[in-house]
């Protein structure tokens, strides 16, 4: 679920895959549809997969069950396309729907660049000579603005440490872009939309094994503040999603937030733990286990530990919070 929410933070549309040889909805299907609504994805195409494994009347009955399931949700008017991924049946129709039903959103090329990091790598192989070593690579999607080769950039929160008193401190990472890639194409400029690989002069140790996931990359001095506590206006789901039930048994109700409990938050592509330190009506104060670079008004997803799994229980909007003092830029 955390992976799905992180990915949804940079998507313009979604394909909801439903197996034709299973009853609808499966617990995970309900949970993912709720997550799509939380992440404000408006453009959805539903794929009824594995139609080659069932008879026509079963496919028609399941199609009606899917229509009933999505009624009143963000996917209410979404097309339901019967496909067989294995036999490549109707894949051309899916491509046509993607082109015609999911519009290209308006992009902002004027604002300072801001990119959510969803992957980071060390591209150096063991045994490289010192002069062959290349800087770390960050992968993600640009939300606004344009990145250019040789541009100086900042990554927040950057390097996070605790001082002797146990207080969290963060030091942004400053670097320079040495290459930009989309797929296999080398670029001089990168614009919003699609996935971009950004080659930098960063120490590759900092980017190894997705260490920068959840951080924000952009123009020096233009990134949002770094929060360690958040005040959120939240809304809880009525019932738990993603938990299997027996027979006609109903999903368990979502209990209220309790002071002192630990939740998981998804903010952009960042997943972090949070301790509830105060609750009043639909407002909660949350202490984060890791600092997050975000803005007031951003949407967040709330998950709770249920039967050894993190389950989506609601969402919220950031109203205010406690920020960290970030050292001034040396550039």
Automatic annotation (TrEMBL):
Protein EC: 3.6.5.3
Protein role: This protein promotes the GTP-dependent binding of aminoacyl-tRNA to the A-site of ribosomes during protein biosynthesis.
One annotated GO molecular function is:
tRNA binding
Which NCBIfam families does UniProt cross-reference here? Answer: PRK04000.1
This protein's name: protein-synthesizing GTPase
Tell me yes or no: is Signal among this UniProt entry's keywords.
Answer: no
Matching entries from PANTHER family are given as: EUKARYOTIC TRANSLATION INITIATION FACTOR 2 SUBUNIT 3 FAMILY MEMBER, EUKARYOTIC TRANSLATION INITIATION FACTOR 2 SUBUNIT 3-RELATED
GO CC, any one term? eukaryotic translation initiation factor 2 complex
| One of the protein's GO biological processes | formation of translation preinitiation complex
Q: Record's family?
A: Belongs to the TRAFAC class translation factor GTPase superfamily. Classic translation factor GTPase family. EF-Tu/EF-1A subfamily.
PROSITE patterns found in the cross-reference section? G_TR_2
Give the top-level enzyme category: hydrolase
Q: Which residues form the Tr-type G domain?
A: 1-106
Going by the UniProt record, its keywords in alphabetical order are: GTP-binding, Hydrolase, Initiation factor, Nucleotide-binding, Protein biosynthesis
Family annotation (InterPro entries): EFTu-like_2 (IPR004161), eIF2G (IPR050543), eIF2g_C (IPR015256), eIF2g_dom_2 (IPR044127), P-loop_NTPase (IPR027417), T_Tr_GTP-bd_dom (IPR000795), Transl_B-barrel_sf (IPR009000), Transl_elong_EF1A/Init_IF2_C (IPR009001)
Domain of life from the UniProt record: Eukaryota
Listed under catalytic activity are: GTP + H2O = GDP + phosphate + H(+)
């Amino acid at each position: 679920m955390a992976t799905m929410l992180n990915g949804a933070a940079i998507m313009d549309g979604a394909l909801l895959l439903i197996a034709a040889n299973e009853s609808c909805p499966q617990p995970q299907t309900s949970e993912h549809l709720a997550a799509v609504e939380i992440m404000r994805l408006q453009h959805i195409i539903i794929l009824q997969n594995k139609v080659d494994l069932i008879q026509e009347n079963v496919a028609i009955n399941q199609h009606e069950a899917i229509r009933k399931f999505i009624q009143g949700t963000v996917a209410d008017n979404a097309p339901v396309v019967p496909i067989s991924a294995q036999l490549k049946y109707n894949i051309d129709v899916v491509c046509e729907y993607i082109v015609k039903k999911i519009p290209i959103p308006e992009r902002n090329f004027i604002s300072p660049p801001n990119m959510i990091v969803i992957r980071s790598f060390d591209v150096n192989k063991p045994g490289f000579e010192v002069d062959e070593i290349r800087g770390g690579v960050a992968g993600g999607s640009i939300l606004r603005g344009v990145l250019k080769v040789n541009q100086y950039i900042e990554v927040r929160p950057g390097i996070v440490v605790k001082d002797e008193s146990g207080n969290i401190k963060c030091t942004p990472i400053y670097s320079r872009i040495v290459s930009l890639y989309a797929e296999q194409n080398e670029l001089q400029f990168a614009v919003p939309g699609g996935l971009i690989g950004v080659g930098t002069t960063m120490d590759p140790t900092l980017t190894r094994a997705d260490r920068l996931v959840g951080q924000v990359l952009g123009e020096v001095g233009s990134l949002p503040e770094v929060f360690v506590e958040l005040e959120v206006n939240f809304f809880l789901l009525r019932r738990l999603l993603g938990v299997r039930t027996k027979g006609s048994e109903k999903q368990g109700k979502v209990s209220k937030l309790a002071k002192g409990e630990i939740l998981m938050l998804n903010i952009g592509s960042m997943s972090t733990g949070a301790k509830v330190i105060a609750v009043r009506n639909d407002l909660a104060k949350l202490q984060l286990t890791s600092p997050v670079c975000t803005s007031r008004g951003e949407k967040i997803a709330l998950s709770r530990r249920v039967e050894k799994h993190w389950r989506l229980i609601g969402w919220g909007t950031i109203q205010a919070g406690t920020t960290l003092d970030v050292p001034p830029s040396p550039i």
